[in-house]
Amino acid sequence: MAFSSGTYSLYSTGNPVVTGTTISSSWANNTLNDIATALTTCVLKDGSQTITANIPMANFKLTGLGAGSALTDSATLRQVQYNFGAFLTSVAGTNTITATATPTPAYTVGQVFTFTPAVTNTGAVTLNISAVGAGAIQLAGAALTGGELQASLPVTVIVTAATPVFEIVQPTQFTDARALVVGATDATKKLRFEVDGIATATTRVVTMPDANVDLQYSQAASDTVAGAIEYAIQSEMETGTSTTLAVTPGRQHFHVSAAKAWCQAAGAGTGINGSYNTTSVTDNGAGDITFTWATDFSGTTYAAFIQGQKDPGGVLYSTHQLATTFAAGTTRAQFQRNDFAQIDPDLWMAIGFGDQA
Asked: In what order do the strands lie in the sheet with 330-337?
């Protein structure tokens, strides 16, 4: 009956033999055929026997394996650990990291290692595994600059040169301080999304349009890009008709309703108390002042209102602007009593509306 469930049993008829019994052909042939069948199903140590079915190992190990060299060969634990994600232990150091792998690695191109940094890096980093030799850790082919390795967050590196060079394959997760995308040819260019402003246990979904989009988009008046935050340029602010364009602080003053300049100056024209788009004031004499605008108006067809303020003390005062000195970059005004005598006010106040160059 040969093997049954892994146990060999000798052919039963005539076995075991009895002393003095005549050997018969039926006993001899059947017994020897049974032994031959049993031997045929054995796995031979010289490798000449071809396996014809799966062999259940019943939780036992194949020991002493040679390293596989073909895609159909078995792999040793050493090969699996080195080439498919050996997890390093005893990791220590900030920018000079030491770690341990068992068995000791030999640094072969293509080896993959995963480890958990103990400290977040602050600059370029080297890694030395089991004292085999230190090599630089890179991201997108460039040296690390700080924050790429986050404390307590596992990271995977692959050996790209036996010298060695360790290239970051993919961090297992990102933090607010970690780059989400790094430039392929310039690793100093990085992109990340900040999530600090999202409430705890809340998910926010950002859906990108099916187009290349510059989310901070400044363009000519005729340009439109689906999904972009389109900023108004000067001409669009001056038109003042769009209800869909975004306005930045630096361009809001181009709108027709916005004051292009204002200033409060000392009465004698000796200094500016507060201002916007005003470079300086010039005292031309008693009750005579010139305001110089930082950004000129497009011409002289703008509106500038200049007022002098003075405690009347029973006397009436008035102001008027001198049209002869009404220029794109300056406005001049005089302050007079009701008898037309010029006198310095307590304060000068000026405001300008119009189109700027």
From this structure: 278-285, 288-293, 330-337, 317-321
